[in-house]
Backbone:
């Protein structure tokens, strides 16, 4: 048995107004325009994110090293140091938990 209609409208029905019926309001037209006294205040998290973007955008990228690692992986020569990966994973988890290692 095929169900052709549910109580939930389809995506197309939700985004298109009914033919002959009133158009749905998106809510943006009812908001007044910002005047000269309008003010926006960003949160501390937003400021920190901006600092991190600046910090990491200045980082160096060694395309030659990436190419060498890519070739080593493709050729099966790349060796993963499981101990180093585990140590760094534990240190990262401890840092996130707020503990010093």
Residues:
């Amino acid at each position: 048995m095929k169900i052709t209609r549910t109580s939930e409208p389809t995506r197309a029905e939700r985004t298109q107004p009914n033919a002959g019926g009133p158009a749905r309001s998106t809510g943006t037209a009812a908001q007044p325009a910002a005047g000269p006294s309008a003010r926006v205040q960003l949160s501390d998290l937003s400021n920190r994110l901006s600092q991190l973007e600046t910090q990491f955008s200045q980082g160096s990228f060694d395309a030659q090293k990436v190419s060498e690692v890519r070739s080593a992986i493709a050729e099966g020569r790349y060796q993963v140091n499981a101990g180093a990966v585990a140590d760094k994973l534990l240190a990262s988890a401890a840092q996130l938990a707020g503990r010093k290692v």
Summary: Residues 65-101 form one domain. The chain has a mean pLDDT of 77. The helical segments are 11-15, 44-57, 63-75, 82-97. Residues 82-97 form the longest helix (16 residues).
